Amino acid sequence: MRTIGITGGVGGGKSQILAYLKSHYNCEVILADEVAHRIKEPGERCYKPLVELLGEEVLAADKRIDKGKMAEKIFRDKSLLEQVNRLMHPMVKEYILEKKERLETEGQIGALFIEAALLIEDGYEEIVDELWYIYASEEARGQRLRAFRGYSEEKIRDIFKQQLSDEEFRKHCSVVIDNSAGLEAAYEQIAKCMKGVLPAC
Question: 115, 131, 136: which is closest to 175 by C-alpha?
Fold first, then answer.
């Protein structure tokens, strides 16, 4: 089983590309954001430590962690946000590693794709065979964020400032998929990259 990390800036089109891979190849896709949501559920590994850290005021009536209440609390306090990240990121990675090992043992799929916002920063290079950078120009990404998410120019600038530079992404990734011109061109590039990895379904 080949394990491939998918990274890139917001608005680059990672979600659409992952959906395409899932529907066209015998592969599994793991999204770190979905894992983070799952492990915060009652009884899961991150639930109790988070409640102990943030207090029961972040709980909803059904005892689940309320996303809005949690966000409100941690974004007012930078040190608390850092504590939450230090707690959650290793647990997300641990969950992903466990699932990767399980999939390898089952031997039912040819490739595993892992997408995480901090794929490079959190050292996922150690657990993947290669990293793919989904590139799109800042102009293309800005247009998408305005059109599909309704983001303001100020919000877009702030997001871009917080993310790794194009140069940094390219330094760590062995494959670059250029999604500036649209998804069809990106899909053609993916087909070439997957030739030596896995045949299309």
Answer: 131
Q: pLDDT class for 200, splitting at 50, 70, 90?
A: confident
Residue that is written with structure tokens 């009536």 in the block: 61
Q: What are phi and psi of 107, to 5 degrees?
A: 65, 30
Model-level pTM? 0.90
Q: Which amino acid is at 128?
A: V
Strand partners, 111: 2, 27
Task: Report d(CA 146, CA 148) in Å as an integer.
Answer: 6
Give DSSP secondary structure letters for 89-137: HHHHHHHHHHHHHHHHHHT--SEEEEE-TTTTTTTGGGT-SEEEEEE--
What are the tens digits of pLDDT across the range 37-65? 999 999 999 999 999 999 999 999 999 99
CA atoms of 195 and 197, how far apart (whole Å) = 6
| pLDDT (0 to 100) of residue 30 | 97
Terminal CA-CA length for the chain: 16
Contact 201, 27 (CB under 8 A): no
pLDDT, tens only, 28-44: 999 999 999 999 999 99
Cα-based angle 60, 63, 69 (whole degrees, multiple of 5): 30
Polymer length in residues for the chain: 201
